[in-house]
Design goal:
The chain has about 250 residues and is α/β, with parallel strands linked by helices. About 35% of the residues lie in helices and about 15% in strands. The protein has a single domain, classed as Aldolase class I (TIM Barrel), CATH 3.20.20.70. The protein is globular and about 50 Å long.
Length: about 250
């Protein structure tokens, strides 16, 4: 039996969304910390070499959307790829997918490192949809290119979030993986005026000596200072025993 294209994530991914959909195979961002090739049992060099649409993706999405029509669960695009790869790969597929979501009255949330490439589809967002970006490493565009060579530079991702907010779209930022805690805190400082929620995690899969309790406590304090809702992911929350905080739920409308 064929697995549904719109599926229920498990593990860490479920903290981001109860439903998800991956439009493409492969991702040319080439992030050094990427865990997806391991999960999919793909060679890293092959996975990051090119991007192609999944077989019959729009037809299958339409079938699945009909089954969940009028759901109150937002569907996240995407976990194992990016919905806004460079233009030579994208070719309007993501817009066609979002039009299907609108037609079936199913809410969606975009999570991308594609930056302002995503802005062309902002006209399709309704009041129940959301736009998000991952801010991983630094505000320094040059440093970002060292570790996320194919992704949009941080300033471009931040611009996309700002434009979305100006358009009245609900916004959130994924602060994960946290490679430099100081830089992640600085990203909150620089973006809090136009971000509706921070989802804050840690660095997994890579050995490190970061004081996660200190980082988590400081991130919570910053969010409270600026009165911005937040969600502390379970991996980071495990270090925060005795620190009082309340996560904000945004997986449902």
């Amino acid at each position: 039996m064929q697995m549904p294209i719109i599926y229920e994530p498990k593990g860490r991914a479920r903290e981001y969304s109860y439903l998800a959909c991956n439009l493409y195979e492969g991702c040319v961002h080439g992030c050094k910390y990427c865990y997806v090739p391991d999960i999919l049992r793909r060679e890293r060099s092959d996975f990051h070499l090119s991007v192609k649409p999944r077989t019959n993706i729009l037809r299958e999405i339409s079938k699945d959307l009909a089954k969940i029509k009028d759901t109150y669960k937002r569907v996240l695009l995407c976990f194992t790829c990016d919905p806004y790869p460079p233009a030579k790969y994208e070719k309007g597929l993501t817009r066609q997918a979002l039009e299907l979501f609108r037609r079936h009255n199913v809410p969606f949330q975009i999570l991308t490192k594609g930056g302002t490439r995503a802005c062309r589809d902002f006209d399709l967002y309704g009041s129940d949809d959301a736009f998000a970006t991952t801010l991983t490493y630094t505000l320094d565009d040059g440093k970002s290119l060292e570790i996320e060579p194919g992704a949009a530079i941080p300033s471009d991702r931040i611009m996309a979030i700002r434009i979305a907010k100006e358009r009245g779209i609900t916004t959130w930022v994924s602060l994960e993986p946290v490679i430099d805690p100081g830089e992640s805190l600085r990203l909150i400082e620089e973006t809090h005026d136009f971000v509706d929620l921070y989802k804050i995690g840690k660095l997994n899969h890579i050995p490190n000596s970061i004081d996660w309790r200190k980082f988590g406590s400081e991130a919570i304090d910053l969010c409270r200072k600026y009165k911005v809702p937040f969600y502390i992911k379970a991996d980071l929350a495990a270090y925060l025993g005795g620190i009082d905080f309340t996560n904000t739920e945004t997986r449902l409308i």
